[in-house]
Amino acid sequence: MNFYLILAGVLTGSVLIGHLTYSKRQYLLPIQQADFDPVVKTVIHCLFHYCSIFMLLSSLILFACGFEAISYMHSFGILIFIALSFGLFAIWQVYISFSSELEKPLQSLFQWLFFTAISAFTLMGVLP
Q1: d(Cα 25, Cα 19) in Å, to the nearest integer?
Q2: What is the per-residue pLDDT across 9-47, written as a single tens digit (0 to 9) for each?
Q3: Which residues contact 123 (CB under 8 A, 6 or more apart)?
Q4: Is this prediction's pTM over 0.85?
Q5: pLDDT tens across 48-72, in order?
Q6: From 128's CA, which of 68, 81, 88, 108 has a CA 20 to 30 Å away?
Q7: Could you report how far apart the first and last alpha carbons of the chain are, in Å?
Q8: Cα 55–Cα 57–Cα 60 angle in degrees, nearest 5
Q9: CA 118, 77, 63: angle at the middle one, nearest 5?
């Protein structure tokens, strides 16, 4: 049993729940009700759910690897991919927040904290 991977799976699942509840209400629904190009609204809706699917699959893989349902040899590559993906999400979000006009960029776009933690716990679980 790998507690780091299980913790990363719990965090990813928690972020997914927040994404599907709070983020949907705060970001997706207002965009869908806004008055601009329907193609753009549909693309944003798709992107929202692409993120949902990625987080769901990541959480399931992290749990499966954490409970050793998948051997270390077979899980190494996908776990590195998950860690790098969430790490890059965090880096990119921090970069975008500082290059925006937000007054408190790191507080306004706080998801980078969760992405960094998921990446770190995944790396701690996969690397000796």
Answers
A1: 9
A2: 999 999 999 999 999 999 999 999 999 899 999 999 999
A3: 80, 83
A4: yes
A5: 999 999 999 999 999 999 999 999 8
A6: 88
A7: 14
A8: 105
A9: 45
